[in-house]
Amino acid sequence: MNRRATIKDIAEQAGVSAKTVSRVMNDEPYVRDDIRERVKRVAAALDYHPNRNAQGLISSRTFLIGLTYERPSPSYVVDLQRGALERLAGERYRLVVLPFADAREDPAGLVALLRSAMVDGALLAPPSCDIPEVLDALDNSGIRYARITPGTMLERGSCALLDERAAGRAIAEHLVQLGHRRFGVILGHPGHAATSARLAGYRDAFAAAGIAPDDIRIERGDFTFHSGEAAAHRLLARTDRPTAILAQNDDMGAAALSVARALGLAVPDAVSIAGFDDADIARLCWPQLTTVEQPVAAIAADATDRLLKQLEGGELAAAITHPHRVIVRGSTGPAA
What we know:
By secondary structure, the protein is an alpha/beta fold.
């Protein structure tokens, strides 16, 4: 078996000290560019791979980034991970996925989880990104963090954003333009800032169109398919059922499609249904779901990039807001 190359081997062949090789491997400053390139060429020729565990023991860094989330739809968390991993490709950091049941009820528990995982930094998805006690504890602990689509305290930490209110208004305006005047709304989880922001956007569109609040029926969900089924049953069983339903994510929108079909209601002829996110399920159900594209993977990648900048140089990058886009498919049509 071939012996694994060491820092000493690289130093001998590159004609530098072992300390210089170590500085290059750790991306430290104060190494001349020509020496850095020579060391990297020798390391590649020797197929050298640094021992990350040993590096962590020496530097007191683990090169681990923790991604926290709770109550997500399956497609949402997959896109979060995909975006973070795409940005970390080729970097020395690894991603640790840390689901947590209820950060709002137990913010100290979430921070304790991050500490026990010995992460250098954290990616905070909703709702933990909007909990001041979580941010305070992380600030005090020295764990750097980036926030994924927060709705409050945007001055704190690095943020990758979506204008949830504007996106909510855009999808509601699409249905208003189709002539709908009687609406049902399936809300997301009350602990997520996006729930109230998207509802505010719907109401902006309704108010601009002169639609009375009494013509809006609101049912509570929690972003899960099951909650969408229950809410859609309550909406569509009414004698004055809505002609259009706005579900605050695609899982609940797909559930509403299923309920309409079970009740014998043609979509979009009898009822139009729209979701939010443009998750895979929006294209897999039938008819395919009209929705708002939220580029979750791109948002997660940008949040990861901002966290890396903090970890590598202490830079706190300005927030970035990603665009939204209404995607019209077969589940919406003119009001009957």
